[in-house]
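Researcher: Please predict.
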Amino acid sequence: MNRHGLMLALAVQGAALAQSAVAEPFADGTWTLLRLTDARGTVTPQGGSAPTLTLAGTRFSTAGGAQVSGSTGCNRFTGRGVFTANTVRLGPLASTRRACAPEVSALEARFLNVLSEARGLSFSPNLLVLSTGRERLVFGNRVTAFEASRLFAEWRLVGAVGDTPPTLRLEPGGAVSGTTGCNLFRGTFTLGGDTLHFSPLATTRRACPSPELQRQETEYLRRLERVRRYRVSGNGLTLILEDGSEQTFQRPVNGG
C-alpha cells in the first residue's frame, strides 16, 4: 500500500472509531422521572416528589458496572448496573427505610419494582427510557456531571446577620445539610434540569441567642421549603422560590 492509500485507510478507520464512540451510550447524570407506566396505569410525578436516577460510568464496560443511585421521592437508594446500547441490568438496590406519606410510599414501591426489573434501554441526550416490556420508566431533565459539580459544594448565605451566617451543603448523593446560624439541619433534595426541591428538613432544637437570629432562622428554613429552581454563576448560587423571589449564596473563599 502506498503512502496515500495508507493515510486514507487510517482516516477511514479513525472516522469509524469516532462514529462508534458517538453511538456508545452515555447516560451519566441525574435524571428526573417524567412518567411511570405499569399494570396499575400511568402516573406523572410532580415537583419535589418525583423520583430521580443518577448514573455514573455508563460509557465504560467494567466488571463492576456503572454506579446507580437516586431518590424515590422519599428514600435514597444505591446499587450498580450494566448498560449497553439498548439493554440494562441492575443489581440489588440498597435503600433507606424512612417512613413516607401513603401516596409517596405507593409511588416508591411501583418505581423500585419497575426499575429493578427493567431490561430494555432507550437513550437520547434529553430522554432516558427503561422498560420491562410492558412497564416503562421515562426520565428527562438530566443534570450532567459538569452541571452538578458546580452545584455540589458548601454555600454561605449572602447578607445574613450575626457572626455565623447560615450555610447550605449539597452532596452528590442527594443529601443536603447546613446551619441556620443557630441550629443544624439535614434532609434530601431532588434535581431536574434547572429545578431544585428540598425535602422537609430536620433540625436541632438549640435556642438562638437573640430574637434577630431566631427570626433569621425561621425565615431561612421557610424559604428553603419554597425553592423551585437554581442558578450557578461563578462562585455564586441563586435559589429561586415559587413566588419568583431569590436567595443568594456564595462559596467560602479558600474553604474559610
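Model: The helical segments are 3-23, 102-117, 145-151, 211-225.
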